[in-house]
Amino acid sequence: MENWSLFSLCVLLGLTSRWAVSFHSYSGAGKPPMFGDYEAQRHWQEVTYNLPVHEWYFNTTNNDLNYWGLDYPPLTAYHSLVCAYVAKLLNPEWVELHASRGYESHSHKLFMRATVLFTDILIYIPAVLLYCFYFCDGFSKQKVATALCILLYPGLILIDYGHFQYNSVSLGLALWGILGLGLGWDLFGSLAFTLALNYKQMELYHSLPFFCYLLGKCIKQGLIGRGFFQLAKISLTVLVTFALCWMPFLSDPKQPLQVLHRLFPFGRGLFEDKVANTWCSLNVLIKIKTLLSRETQLFLSFALTLLFILPSSLKLLSKPNLWQFKLALVNSSLAFFLFSFQVHEKSILLAAFMLPLLVKDGLLLPYVVTSLAFLFLSLYLLSHLTRTNEPLFWYFPFLVISVATFVWLEPPAKFPDLFPVLVSILSFLHFLGFIIYFNLVQLMEPQRKKSQKKTN
Amino acid sequence: MAAPMTNDQSWFYALALGVSFLKCLLINAYHSTDFEVHRNWLALTHSLPAAQWYYEATSEWTLDYPPLFAWFEYGLSHIASFFDKEMLVVQNLNYASPATILFQRLSVIVADVVFFYAVKECCKCLREDKGKYLLGKPSFILTVLLLWNFGLIIVDHIHFQYNGFLFGVLLLSIARHFQNRHFEGALLFSILLNLKHIYLYIAPAYGIYLLRCFCFTQSNADGSLQWRSFSVVRLVTLGTIVLSTFSVSFGPFIALGQLPQVLSRLFPFKRGLCHAYWAPNIWALYNIADKAFSILGVKFKLLDINKLPKASMTGGLVQEFQHSVLPSVSPLATLVCTVLSILPALFRIWHRPNGARGFLRCLVICALGSFMFGWHVHEKAILMAILPLSLLAVESREDARIFLILSITGHYSLFPLLFTTQELPIKILLLLLFTIFSLTSLKTLFRKGGALLNPLEATYLLGLIPLELICEFVYPLTVWQKTFPFLPLMLTSVYCALGVTYAFIRLYISLLTCSDSTKKIKTQ
């Protein structure tokens, strides 16, 4: 069967599972007064449509920042504005200032889900296809299998189409950035990544590898001459993109400061809820949240993040090639997730460890189905296409058992949070293991197997 | 520790598991009144004694399937009581708690295991199963065409029915005939008839085939009948199997003297010529022609507009309809047409049987003929032709071509069943999925010998895209949506009727002109 048909089947399967998951509940459904992320996105449409730009990030009578105030960079706000225009065409009640708070209806849900699907098709899915086509090793069947696995990845599907968010936009743009860099189109890659950064500040997790890769590449081309020009062009692209995105906010110096204040809420503390990172796990043994002052916490997290990210970045700087770049991305995001300040569990987008959140949203069924399907599919394809005897097979029943335990057993009354905490700690240990492993791989560069280049 | 899956058959389980996952995701999708129908049957078989099953009429959805299916529902109802006892109360009309939905949906998904087994057996019946790689193997293609059949997923797991389970029994019966295990095949078919009597449509194919190829144990060298080889033993055994199945199923009701009541429930002829949504058959074309003539007649002052009956058929209700210009059609007329349409095929396999494959072809023609000419046909019935045809499609070029035309138009004609906005992306995505797969895999399988579809056929199929855009997206925004709300349905059914008719004709041609097999009919 030809490649294009296989790829289109993957896309169709991916889209079908996405839309089928969207039938289920969303975050905060039917839970006044605050509701959830779904209501937050709707509220941002309301705010951006009805209020002038300089009021979006400020606490005014019309804009109560305590009720889901904007805390993403301007591109999210512009996206919400565009959605709001469409919403206004379909049903003005959806974005009525103040009156539309907590608005919930079947048609509105369809509209919101449709916006996610639209941006997914526009940005994320083409990026995945191109990535698999150009940058996957192996013969074409392996590329298709990779595409299928990525497109069926439950974490993204459940968060975007279940819980409700627009991660596919920022991840998609970042992926376009990686594509650009991989194809040698540095300017395009920088542009795409800058846009990703201006959509969700979480992309800062990936920024250091981008920076080090591009810088390293320019240095290699010689700092006097071509390399310098390249660096200048890249910097100009980045600065211009930032300027364009932040243009409405540059008229008054208070504006960008307020936006930054909303984006990086250092006032909120080291962590919230149960997150599978170092601080939350450490907190079980030593109550660092209360022991240390906020300044010390900030310093500690900054220092540790830097410590874990430095080796990988320096290595990339010295050897700017694609393989190093990919590994650096993994290491950088893991480091930030594990050690930085005010991390939310969604930042990891790893399904197995978001179970508590999804159960709260009423998404248990799609979670179970998509995770099982993904695990089974990836293990099956992995075993068939790489002909290795991965010890990952023990992982499958282990995860199933842990999920079952969480769902069916009642925690003892003395420790009502026992299971979420256990899940968090377990996950944290996994991630710690991953970051050590991947750092070792990147730094030591063990012999890579020659990939089989079979013809179709 | 689980062993790595290097088993050659593991792809089958992967496909089965994959489609089951998809079905699970669709648990929350729209379900039609058929959901309430089955809940009602769960309730009445559970709460009432068997003597009252066919008299119970609290709900409008009375029991209209044969007794074995009622017993099936009875069995299910015991499991249902663990999920939500309230669904088993007959008075709880339209009861649809989350537990009820979960149970009913899961029951369909689990019952599909029968279908999985049948598909596996069918794959064993393929003549040759060689392919350069997995995706090109006929058994792989057949498995996907059956397990991931668009019509089955849409009708069973969204609209809500138990067709997977029933078609599993049918396909298993066919497989048994291919494997020369005719007694089992006959038994399975008798059971099937007692589960859902719509399969009476294909009973003639079974009857003629078994009589000709099984009861007459041998044929002459040229393939004609050898009268002396008639085996009374076989005939009597077959008869016993069929009769005993029917007596197990209907016996209790005959003993209670309820047979007329049961039959009146099973065959309600009061309904109209066409179902609420017209099936894309001959009568759709007939109705349209009648409408066209009446409009032309009024325009050219040949007819008096006051004498014409009101346009009650374009309303979505199931009513008796009087045609204006062309003669009206009665149930008897449709029966005669149906019988006439399948007679040539039956004669053919009597005269020159082509073994199990000839039987299968005749079966598909019977199914399609009854679809084309039957009374009050539901468009879901097209699946009865499409699914068995899949078996032939992976073995012969001409069948593959007919299959493509029939399946794509037939599946598209199912679209009106899912009319909700939420399900719109799902039905389009799944149809595209199935269509792209069937087109490319069959094209690759039969790449020797030129293109599979000729330009006219390809254009016709591509015409479905603008049709969908107009009916689903453009038309609702126009003024005519209020005055002629059923125009899109009419358009869909007429357009698809063309494709189905074309497939029917081609199938007949292929049966009547197929090169005779010179191989002898195997004797047991």
TrEMBL record, chain A:
Enzyme class at the top of the EC tree = transferase
Principal localization reads endoplasmic reticulum
* Keyword annotations of the record: Endoplasmic reticulum, Glycosyltransferase, Membrane, Signal, Transferase, Transmembrane, Transmembrane helix
E.C. number, please? 2.4.1.-
Catalysis: reaction(s): an alpha-D-Man-(1->2)-alpha-D-Man-(1->2)-alpha-D-Man-(1->3)-[alpha-D-Man-(1->2)-alpha-D-Man-(1->3)-[alpha-D-Man-(1->2)-alpha-D-Man-(1->6)]-alpha-D-Man-(1->6)]-beta-D-Man-(1->4)-beta-D-GlcNAc-(1->4)-alpha-D-GlcNAc-diphospho-di-trans,poly-cis-dolichol + a di-trans,poly-cis-dolichyl beta-D-glucosyl phosphate = an alpha-D-Glc-(1->3)-alpha-D-Man-(1->2)-alpha-D-Man-(1->2)-alpha-D-Man-(1->3)-[alpha-D-Man-(1->2)-alpha-D-Man-(1->3)-[alpha-D-Man-(1->2)-alpha-D-Man-(1->6)]-alpha-D-Man-(1->6)]-beta-D-Man-(1->4)-beta-D-GlcNAc-(1->4)-alpha-D-GlcNAc-diphospho-di-trans,poly-cis-dolichol + a di-trans,poly-cis-dolichyl phosphate + H(+)
Pfam families the record matches: Alg6_Alg8
Compartments annotated for it: namely: Endoplasmic reticulum membrane
Give the transmembrane region(s).
Answer: 110-132, 144-161, 173-197, 227-249, 298-318, 325-344, 364-385, 392-409, 421-440
| Family from the record | Belongs to the ALG6/ALG8 glucosyltransferase family.
PANTHER family reported in the protein's UniProt record? DOLICHYL GLYCOSYLTRANSFERASE, DOLICHYL PYROPHOSPHATE MAN9GLCNAC2 ALPHA-1,3-GLUCOSYLTRANSFERASE
* Name by which UniProt lists this protein: Alpha-1,3-glucosyltransferase
Organism encoding this protein = Cyprinus carpio (Common carp)
UniProtKB/TrEMBL annotation, chain B:
Instruction: Please name the InterPro entries in this protein's record.
Output: Glyco_trans_ALG6/ALG8 (IPR004856)
Molecular function GO labels: dolichyl pyrophosphate Glc1Man9GlcNAc2 alpha-1,3-glucosyltransferase activity
- The portions of this protein that span the membrane are 12-31, 140-160, 186-211, 232-256, 325-346, 358-375, 426-446, 458-480, 486-509
This protein's UniProt keywords? Endoplasmic reticulum, Glycosyltransferase, Membrane, Transferase, Transmembrane, Transmembrane helix
Its BP terms in the Gene Ontology are: protein N-linked glycosylation
Which EC numbers characterise this protein's activity in its record?
2.4.1.-
Q: What is its main location?
A: endoplasmic reticulum
Pfam families noted in UniProt: Alg6_Alg8 (PF03155)
Pathway as given in its UniProt record: Protein modification; protein glycosylation
Its EC top class is: transferase
Q: Name one GO cellular component term.
A: endoplasmic reticulum membrane
What's the superkingdom here?
Eukaryota
Please state the span of the N-terminal signal peptide per the UniProt entry. Answer: none
* Subcellular localization: Endoplasmic reticulum membrane
Membrane topology value: Multi-pass membrane protein
The similarity annotation says: Belongs to the ALG6/ALG8 glucosyltransferase family.
Supply the name of the protein: Alpha-1,3-glucosyltransferase
The lineage is: Eukaryota, Metazoa, Chordata, Craniata, Vertebrata
